Amino acid sequence: MKTSLFYLPSVGSRADIEAGMAGMRGDLYGNMLKEVGEQARLADALGYDSINFTEHHFHVEGIELSNNPVMLDLYIGMQTKRIRVGQLGIVLPADNPIRIAEDIAMLDHMTGGRANAGFARGYQRRWVDVMAQHTHGVHGALPNKHDQIDAANRAAFEENFRIIKKCWTEEMLTWEGKLWRIPVEGTPWTVEASQRYGKGIENGLVKSVGVVPKPLQKPHPPLFQPFASSESSIRWCAEQRVTAVLPPMHAKHEARLSELYAAVSKRLGDGVAFLRDIIIADSDEEADALWQNSSRFMATAWFEPFGFRRGMVDPDTGEYPSPQEMIDLGYALVGSVDTVCRRLEATLKRLPAEWIFFWAFNGLVPHAAMLRTIERWQTRVLPKLGLA
Predict the structure, then answer these.
(1) Which of 69, 73, 154, 227 could serve as 85's disulfide partner, Cβ 3.0–4.6 Å?
(2) How confident is the model at residue 144, as a pLDDT?
(3) Which pTM does this prediction carry?
């Protein structure tokens, strides 16, 4: 099993966030970079497989300050030797696919072939609607909503994804789609050097373009999609050989989606990852207190209003688990080493997966406690279960 750290990342403590406008404080942002860098260096030394950052904008609240995950990847990559760096994920409908392809290819070279590529669709309308206004009709699409906004968002996501793969794998690129035409018809280019040393020019017009550099990894870096929770997303991931990262959801939903991925891809367990809060302390009581002040605070204040709690509903009874039931059932791996081992073992028996993504609540969990959790997971939990 592979383990990846996943950071929003937030800035400051719960008290800092509750004081208001924490995202505006440069001191908190600088401290976040310092602490996440130290956590990443420890994870690198211990043998963690990767580290990933989300993409969001305008987070004056201080909750998700990751407006450029590729730059954060490079920041971590320059401090580490072997851990892979990725994104969960770049929001394709709100960006330029050629620039994304270029940025990740550059990251791959600069880190010696350690880049992963994670692509998301975007659900926070406050920023997606602003950043995607160049794409007519594309808005943030909420989880579990299947409407015209969702359809337009998905169409933009899939077109941009296809362009990115062509940028990486084809010498010269042409594309004619709903959102993009590459190159623009009738673009003049009479530079003689292009005729001598390049390709793509015919009779003084641009007929194709070459996106460079290509990634160091061939044909391209490993692909991920967060946080796939619908049958259409899982089917698409399986067809495209993209690892689907499942958010915490009821065991019946997890089983159904994992089985669907395996049926489409013909790869049981491979290509599926699951996300979990992980906090390991000296006692269950200490770990629970840290969890209540980090993940539970964040879930109630931020994620539940976007509809993410719906995935936890029992499809047969319509009931939601209590916070304590979430821990008891292994949806959050919180407790002492022995408790976390027991709950992880039970989870893996029902949910075969290639990856586990460790949701690291930096700042909300004090730095020293984060370092202890990172160390205990790799040196005490995984070896005890024969997974190291």
Answers:
(1) 73
(2) 64
(3) 0.94
